[in-house]
Design goal:
About 40% of the residues lie in helices and about 10% in strands. With about 300 residues, the protein is α/β, with parallel strands linked by helices. It has a domain of about 200 residues: Alpha-Beta Barrel (TIM Barrel). The strands form five sheets. Strands 6-7-8-9 form a four-stranded parallel β-sheet, covered by helices on one side. The radius of gyration is 18 Å and the shape is globular. It starts with 14 loop residues before the first strand and ends with a helix.
Amino acid sequence: MATTGEKPTRHPPQVAANPISYWARDGRVDKSRDVFEEAFADLADIGFTAVKADVPDDMTAEQYAAWIGRYGLSASVSLFSSPFDETIDIVDEMERAKRFAEVQVALGLDRTMISSMAIPARMAEPAVGADFDKDRLALAIENCGIVCLVLQREGLRPLHHSHVGGAFETEDEITQLLDTLGPDVIGLGPDTGHLCWAGIDPAALINRYADRIGGIHIKDCFGDYLDPSARASLSYQELSATKRLWAECGRGVVDFEAVLDAMPEDYDGDYMLEVDEPSAESRYESYQICYDWARLSIMD
């Protein structure tokens, strides 16, 4: 045990991967076994030992653990997503959250990211809080809080995960969510790239809510389209497709030195690397670049 004035012992961080660029292509989602097996083989060859837990609907937690275990991989924190707005039936979302949590807990996980995504008006005009409505935001916060309590009852700690295109896109919306629900209901699992794209300083947000950090997605972005005037009329998908939005870790403009310095000394979660749309020649090369960066910046 550390004595007064000494920093607590920090456990070696686990670096995980979200193989999103394998299963999200050209605006389509393909979470077939063939796609995942390609991703698992690549990630294991690169050196990753953990992967975001995406369990196929026709597979039990035990079967999934055995599947990724054949590649030397373990399950890392996943994500529960919902619009949380007027388009959902909250009873249905509660049941879906319960089923999701049962699987995650069976994998040995004790936390999950929770995020709002894919609201049409915000996918069409991303990262500026398009079509803002205070009543819709209040409803989204209420619905998110209800789902968080369901996840908690099932044994998962919910962590707000910032994501462009959802109900909690701007800094004001994110802080309203966190401050309204409070630390007993929701923690924080930031995405550095999505925060940067929305004009939010990731390190400042982490510092503000340092006592609530339970996970993090390490993502970089280029500066080409961060100014709203540079992306007028371009949708979320169109911007991603330029290959000048998302960058491999360390090749963009996110200040990762500040981000890592802001992480609390007693942080006990993973560092999940991801590149939604690689700028490198291949997905393999993209994750290799990120892993090599992480070896120097996080793992050493």
